[in-house]
Design goal:
Blueprint: H1 2-12, H2 14-26, H3 32-44, H4 50-75, H5 80-91, H6 95-116, H7 127-132, H8 137-162, H9 170-194
């Protein structure tokens, strides 16, 4: 995957970063750590400027997340109840759980969206409930962009400091990402097997 990302970044420059970061959030298997890390290397080589790299990466991240927010927003809270009533067993959810999530997003939605930007397995997934529970568009975009900017700065600066050795990180990022996905699947299967409705 590293070579493909490298070719797209070198061919497209900031537009390549922008496109890759959109794709990374719509199709999470593409790691943002790799994209922004390589961007940081290019900054160290004098081939990119840090401010433009961060702008391209943050805009791409925000747009990619906004896609899932809109999916949730279009589906809407009102249409959710028949789905929960019918398929709640498979989601291990009852309607009271959904109402509790709705209250959580009403009070702390911006903090939840901001904090989840730093969690590899949940960075993109949090956008869907934010849309479902009608978090305001502007509020979602501001907090998503804020969290993305901080995270992208960390990744780009790591690439800048590590230089060409950053390529070696791809050997570890892939297995760690796979382990996170496997862990999430196992956790879901355990919850599915042990879940009993309270209502």
């Amino acid at each position: 995957m590293t070579d493909w990302v490298l070719r797209l970044i070198d061919a497209g420059g900031y537009w390549g970063i922008f496109l890759l970061m959109i794709l990374e959030n719509v199709f999470p298997p593409i790691p943002s750590e790799l994209i922004m890390g390589i961007g940081g290397i290019r900054v160290g080589q004098g081939r990119m400027a840090m401010e433009w790299l961060l702008l391209a990466g943050t805009l791409g991240t925000t747009i990619g997340n906004y896609f899932w927010y809109l999916v949730g927003h279009i589906l809407g809270f009102g249409r959710l109840k028949p789905l929960v009533d019918r398929f709640g067993r498979w989601a291990t959810l009852e309607w009271r759980d959904v109402e509790a999530l709705d209250r959580l997003f009403g009070k702390y939605g911006q903090i939840v969206v901001f904090v989840f930007r730093f969690m590899p397995a949940f960075r993109t997934m949090i956008s869907l409930p934010a849309g479902l529970f009608r978090m305001g568009h502007v509020r979602f975009l501001i907090w998503t962009a804020g969290g993305a900017l901080v995270w992208n700065l960390v990744l780009a600066y790591a690439g800048f400091l590590l230089g060409q050795n950053f390529r070696d990180i791809d050997k570890y990022v892939g297995p760690v990402a796979t382990a996170c996905v496997v862990g999430a699947v196992l956790l879901y299967l355990w919850r599915l097997a042990t879940w009993r409705p309270k209502g």
